[in-house]
Amino acid sequence: xxxxxxxxxxxxxxxxxxxxxxKPHAHTQQTEVDSSRPMPSxxxxxxxxxxxxxxxxxxxxxxxxxxxxxxxxxxxxKRRALAQxxxxxxxxxxxxxxxxx
Length: 101
Description:
By secondary structure, the protein is mainly alpha-helical.
């Protein structure tokens, strides 16, 4: 199992991934959708991004924008669902709120 350790800071950038006995997976950008395996969650993308950028600091907004740029297909369903249920809320803003909570 893994643990997230948090330094005394109010931004998401203070989170760093602490592996518990496992080597981190090499991260590659997904080019084709493989329906046989589930899409990684926003949290999984954040952990992988922070592992690749160890020692750097990011705001929740920076994380969301970078992850959406790298993995737009992973969030198509969520974007459509939010557009139907809450058309007044920008998608990126909703993800930033989720990361910050």
